[in-house]
Each structure stands twice: as structure tokens, then as C-alpha cells.
Amino acid sequence: MSLDLSSILDAWPNEPGKMNVRLIEGDDGEPRIQLRIDLGILQLRVSGRPDGLRPYGLESLLEYHEQRLDDHSAEHGSAAGFVLGEDECKELREEAVQYYHRYVCMMVLEEYDGVIRDTTRNLRVLDLCGKYAETEQDRSVLEQFRPYIVMMRSRALASQSLKDDEPKAAIFAIDEGLTSLKTYFSETGQMDTFDESSEVQMLRGMRDALTPKLPVSEKAELKSRLAKAVEQENYELAAILRDELKNLKD
Predict the structure, then answer these.
(1) Which region, left, alpha or beta, applies to residue 57 given φ > 0 means left and ψ of -120 to 50 means alpha?
(2) Are 92 and 84 in contact (CB under 8 A)?
(3) Under 8 Å CB-to-CB from 19, ≥6 apart: which residues?
(4) Binning pLDDT at 50, 70 and 90, where does residue 17 land?
């Protein structure tokens, strides 16, 4: 069997400026995500750790360290004294990159549940390192990525809601994301850059596009028809609509 990948790469040329992603079936019958990059192809598993490894018999290093934290808290009555060393934080960051590649691919594939799962998971990495890393550098280095992860998670939640024909739920997901971003920018002393943030602008743009799709309430529709009837001097219809509005209030 040849080890040369040229035929595989030639059959799927890289397109600069475009996310080249596809879902394939592996030799074991399980799905795989493939991402075409300039010098090759990344292949990721759809669930579990993207590279398929199970460190310490668990799904990922995050689960391992969270279990360590739970064991420490149970033994000592609190989390006080629990720390993550520099090497452990480095490994967690490297692992989080795998999940980043996967949730970006899943967004392109419109597999929104997977995006929600992996972004939520990576936010747990930020929280764990932010609380328990031994050094200040390791506690803060990942925080710069929080706005992006929050934005991607909110987009996925909203997109899934739209898929389920729930535009109100989509608006709610976006508003929750904007609130989380506002909290982040406020707590980090960056409120002066909040409105210019690309993540904020992305969610606001999505919200503006969704607002016209919201269902009009019965009361709002009656008021609109009443105003139109009065404008057209159709007073008989206007009287009927006023009665309907009164009954609705009652």
C-alpha cells in the first residue's frame, strides 16, 4: 500500500479563502469530519475527543482534571489547594484546539448540536484554568478567546432554533450571548470596545436579520388593521376592529 497522499489531495483540491469541510464514513462505519487545509487534510471524530484518544480511560483530559477536582473536593471538603501545573494547562490548551477545529467544521456542516456541545465544553476549560491554574499566565491566557467561543455557541443555539422553526428562541439565544459578552467586557475593563467587537456585531447582525421573522401578536395585528381602516376611512371595519381589541383586552 502506497503511503503517498497525492491522489487523495488531488481528488479534493484546496480552495483558498473557503472552509473546505466534508463528512465521510470511516472504514469502521463511523462518521468522520475532514477539513482540507493547504498542505493536507485533518480528520476528526464526530464525538468524543476529536483524535479518538481516551486519556486515563476518559473522554478527554478535561474530564480527567474535573474528576481530580471532584475527588480533591470530596477528600478535603473544598477545592482549596487544588492546582493545575503549567504542563497540565498546556495539555488542556492543546486539547481545546482539537475541539475548536471540530466545532468550526460542524458550524459549516450545520451540525449545530455538535457546535453547542464543543463550545460549551471549551468554556469549561477556560473556567477550570481560570480558577485553578498555578500561574497567572495560565489563568489568563485563554480568556482572550471567550468572546469568540460565546459568539459561536450563541450562533449555533440560534441556528438550531431556526431549524426547529422557533424564531423567538433564536432571539433569546442571541440576547443571552450578548449579555454574556457584555459581562465579559465589563469585568475585563473593556466596555469602551464592546460595540466595536466583531463578536458583538456578528450577533447583533444576526438578531437584526431575525427580527422581521418574529410572529406578530394578535393584538399588534389588530392595531395595525385598525390604523389602516381609519386611514382609509372605513369606519364600519374600524368599529368592528375596536370591538375585537376591547374583547381581547377583556
Answers:
(1) left
(2) yes
(3) 35, 104, 105, 108
(4) confident
What is the rounded CA–CA span in Å between residue 158 and residue 177?
10
Question: Residue type for 231, please?
Answer: E
Residue 180 has φ and ψ, to the nearest 5°, of -65, -40
Return d(Cα 169, Cα 164) in angstroms, integer.
Answer: 9
Sketch the domain layout of the chain as residue ranges.
218-249
Residue 23 backbone dihedrals phi, psi, to 5 degrees = -110, 125
pLDDT tens digits, one per residue of 26-63: 999 999 999 999 999 999 999 999 999 999 999 999 99
Provide the grid cell at 39.
498542505
Task: Please state the pTM of the whole predicted model.
Answer: 0.83
pLDDT of 96-148, one tens digit each?
999 999 999 999 999 999 999 999 999 999 999 999 999 999 999 999 999 99
Task: Fill in the DSSP letter of residue 135.
Answer: S
DSSP character at residue 204: H
Q: Which cell is 79 given?
A: 477545592
